[in-house]
């Protein structure tokens, strides 16, 4: 009951601020100006090896799709999953800015197929810390695999945590527009504000976004590749232009592909060197589908042998780096 009361109070306070024409305190200290060029690092390495090279409070958003401990490979087999995950969760909190957000993909796995490696395990661990659970998002997809021993799964959970109560959130960037008929009906209702109707509606914490079919044009070869529109919504809402986005279980590299399009900086890493091949395929698709848009984007991508040229690692190399464990 205490948590429910706190959440209601927080939402009432946010609504009061909007009605008064004021902004959340996190927006008062953020420079959302853009630069001519964004920078990105695509790195093959272990997540802890990477995190321990990143300065304190230098990351605005972490997009995290960790292994589920379902024995898909050596990297997906941990005797004590929570103990392993706690190491990178501690580092993730350290590198987040005070306005930063952590998003963790996962699911509540059928126990016959998983060890102690689902999202519920991580959330139970995080309850003892001081990260703020802002939302549990339900990613609902109508398409998926069938099942015989339980009801076919058609959703995945996404846990969103803020570093502090000043976490950044831009709802307007992800509102869903009303169709013209609905909009006109709402505009006739004098109780509603026309400017709010024009902006569109809050997409809620249930997102209907299809999983990628096997023949999707977005496919680059990674088996658990996330849809671009899904990552796009997260990046737009929880980071701001020219801020830094980190994904240390990068998989196909879709996070950097979206960050480039959205004017964010990024760092993506994975222990699988195929990350580079997947990312290159993403960028090839990006260019072929949006040649004019792509050509106008100025971005620099640093690879394994030159990743320390990325601005975040330059800060660490120059000594402006106090690592707190």
Overview of this structure, please?
By secondary structure, the protein is an alpha/beta fold. The protein has a single domain (35-176, 203-317), classed as Vaccinia Virus protein VP39 (Rossmann fold, 3-Layer(aba) Sandwich). The protein is built from eleven helices and nine strands. It has helices at 2-19, 47-51, 81-95, 119-126, 180-187, 194-199, 228-238, 254-262, 274-289, 291-296, 311-317, and strands at 38-44, 59-64, 96-106, 132-140, 155-162, 206-208, 244-247, 265-270, 299-302. It has a nine-stranded mixed sheet. Strand 7 (244-247), helix 8 (254-262) and strand 8 (265-270) form a beta-alpha-beta unit. It is globular. The two termini are 33 Å apart. Residues 1-7 and 320-325 have low confidence and may be disordered.
For the secondary structure, the number of strands is 9
What percent of residues are in strands?
A: 15-25%
Radius of gyration, in angstroms, nearest whole number: 20 Å
Instruction: Report the average pLDDT across residues.
Output: 86
| Full CATH superfamily name | Vaccinia Virus protein VP39
Please name the defining characteristics of this protein.
9-stranded mixed β-sheet; 9 strands; disordered N terminus; alpha/beta; Rossmann fold; 325 residues
Structure, briefly:
This protein is of the alpha/beta class and 325 residues long.
Write the layout of secondary structure elements.
Blueprint lengths: L1 H18 L18 E7 L2 H5 L7 E6 L16 H15 E11 L12 H8 L5 E9 L14 E8 L17 H8 L6 H6 L6 E3 L19 H11 L5 E4 L6 H9 L2 E6 L3 H16 L1 H6 L2 E4 L8 H7 L8
Helix pairs in contact: 7-8
